[in-house]
Amino acid sequence: MQSLKVRILSEEYAFRAENPELTRAAVEEVNRLIGEYRQKVSDYSPVRLAVLAATSLAEKVLEHEQRLHAIQKEVERLNRYITTTIEESYLESRKQDEQIRLSESEKDLAEAIQSVQQNTTIANQAEQA
């Protein structure tokens, strides 16, 4: 934590900040919003201007949190889709591999049957001779 002095509405404030650059940027945004509201409604008190700025910033935070939540849900949905697609692809690949193995076994079996038939034919011819 680092000590930091900033000005908001011409008042100096002391902060202890983990990220001083971020805190300075936040203070600049607060001062910018207060200035923006001061131009629109010059008769508001400094406290009321600060409340408007705080409310505006809170709305932005909540909006970003909602967007983040929606993005997280979409990422979860896409992860489920990808996982399911990979699993289905893997199972289909295994099924095709098994079919190829069966096809090769059927071919080997057909060759074995053909060989037995040829040997039987040769044996029968030899007996007749």
How many distinct domains?
1
Biggest β-sheet: count, sense, barrel? 2 strands, antiparallel
What is the H/E order?
EEHH
Q: Helical amount among residues, as a percent range?
A: over 70%
Mean pLDDT: 90
Count of helix runs: 2
Q: Total number of β-strand segments?
A: 2
Low-confidence runs of at least 5 consecutive residues? none
Question: Ends: how far apart?
Answer: 107 Å
Could you tell me the radius of gyration in angstroms? 39 Å
Structural class: mainly alpha
Query: Which of globular, elongated, flat, extended, rod-shaped describes the shape?
Result: rod-shaped
Physical arrangement of strands within the biggest beta sheet: 1-2
Approximate strand percentage:
5-15%
Topology:
Layout: E1 2-8, E2 11-17, H1 20-40, H2 46-128
Antiparallel strand pairs: 1-2
Helix pairs in contact: 1-2
Key terms:
2 strands; 129 residues; mainly alpha; single chain
Descriptive notes:
This protein has helices at 20-40, 46-128, and strands at residues 2-8, 11-17. It has 129 residues and is mainly alpha-helical. It has one domain (2-118). Strands 1-2 form a two-stranded antiparallel ribbon. Strand 1 (2-8) and strand 2 (11-17) form a beta hairpin. Helix 1 (20-40) crosses helix 2. The protein is rod-shaped.
